[in-house]
Amino acid sequence: GSDGSDGSYGGDGVSDDGSLELSTLTRSSAFANGVAGFLTYDAHLPPELLQVPRINRGDVPLHHVRLIHEQLKRLRNALFLSRLLSRALVLPPMLCSCELGFWIKHVEEDCRAGGHHTLQLPYLCPVDHYLFPRTLARSRFAHRERSFLENPRTPESARRSMTVDVCRGSGCDAESVGDGQLLLAASPTAASIRRRLGHLNVSILHFSDVLGSFGGFESKMRTARFHSEAQELLSGWCCTSHPAFKKLGGEVPYLLPPLPGQREWRGTPKLAWAANTIAQLFREANQSTVADELEPCATSRSGRTGEGCA
To answer: Which InterPro entries does the UniProt entry name for this protein (predicted)?
Structure first.
């Protein structure tokens, strides 16, 4: 079927890839360049993820990989939500807790590249420290730079926002609307998201809990497509002397965490070797939760199966 890029949509105003047809959305001067508005989210992280322990030179910095992993869970949901709603994601302030090097062992024991001893860790990652900008520019994930809303050239008409909060428990009125606030039942499906948020005439939808604001797709094909295309955006960390990563010149690729509860996508098959290697490193460090989230193949511990398995 069509992915919507050729302009073909179903009768409900939804393209085959699940995004809303723009003609079904209320337009204003704020909704420019083919998007129906913008999407932002809270990027708060637990303080323990921001610690920067010393490493052995040449090792994979697991604290940094875990920090990126947790942020990619949020970024994944935000990318999916923005695409479903035909909005542009304002890129978040991503944090890096180990500097990106240029060659193997360029990064020293303090996780700074040689000679960069005044760099404060963690630091705000430039976009090319975790994404491929050219791939992002060609993708179907509309976006704006991190500073978009602070830019004085951004019109005031693009700044009117509504906050989406997640409603949990029996005592809350799920899906009610307050002054500048909307309550959304936890872990909604893609169809519920489109039905509830797809026609709001507001420039910015801000998600206070982006992890709890998306529960998955109805279609196995759509699940695999969105995950695969998001994985293609991700770059990696340079550089380790671990022998498994020699084929990439020491680069450790970043891996998109699969949405929990689904089995249609367990990682890109061509990166299954990297997922298994990184998962094993986390197991050896007694961080089995991260390992389980990354491991593509069935094991005696998890019992999962994935398309990355041989």
So the answer is: Glycosyltransferase_77
